[in-house]
Amino acid sequence: MDLDQLQRTLAAAGEPPFRARQVWDWMARGAASYDEMTNLPAALRERLAAELPFSTLELEREARASDGTEKALFRTADGRPLEAVLMRYGDGRRSLCLSSQSGCPLTCTFCATGRMKFGRNLTASEILDQALHFRRAEPVDHAVFMGMGEPLMNVDNVLAACERLPAIGITHRRTGISTVGWIPGIERLTECDMPLRLALSLHAADEALRSELMPVNERHPLADVLEACLRWHDRRRMPVFVEYLMLDGVNDRYEQALKLAELLHPRKAFKVNLIPYNPTDAGFQGSSRAAIDAFRRALEERGVRVTVRLTRGRDIDAACGQLAARAAT
Ligand code: SAH
To answer: What is the gyration radius of the CA atoms in the chain, in angstroms?
Structure first.
């Protein structure tokens, strides 16, 4: 729901300010229509239903993978495509992967979103409506901004959405923002009062290779990015999650693991997450399982904390870096 428009509609109807809060409380608890909002006068419910679309997003398509992962393809009111994903885990965790932009202006060479046309930043309401879509079906408790777009290039709207996620069931500590290393945005996160998690898409420990894979590295070189991450860590006392995509013959050699281990100091400030590459049509091959294990051991032997990411939703193109809204463009 467009929360600014809600304010305006309520003001125009001469309603007291607490009404906006009532409507939001219903939405956040998963209400699926104005009819359910029984503490609102019936006439107001009717007026809202006539004047204010229940969501800023139109659901265009939904797909469910064999592992229970669900992907939703939406369109904004001005026709921009975006996708969001719900991952269900065996321990009951329900984690959302949210988009912050329609498309992405950065052009990381391995990423499907980076290859589609950039549309625009999503509003806070458009970000929240992705979460509310899934919340209407079931409770959710984690979120990561790892869908389309670079969240820290849209930091005002992303933070405004994060302010409201706890009402939906997702605390700040269970909300993660993933970035290519957009330094002004990392600084904003360091200053802000919400204890949100930070994930850095690193992918190469060497500046030249990183610039090849992620042209944004020319603007924000890795060395500066890591300094900004350490300042964030000093304030938050939580580890930075380092995402490292495993690309066959590109960044998965033993020496490259050593180089990565050298960069990540102090050890307690970082946790590495090795990401199996999900095929797109970008021309890269994912590293073999054996290569990922060897890379992992090389890091562990040097005291780096490492996990290997579980791939989810591959059969519906809902896995990391696959969100490209192909069907919608
Ligand atoms: N712009 C942000 C968030 C979106 S991408 C960022 O880059 O962090 C979320 C993660 O998915 C990033 O780590 C990105 O590098 C990774 N990713 C992109 N394409 C991928 C692919 N094909 N397979 C696996 N991970 C991919």
So the answer is: 21
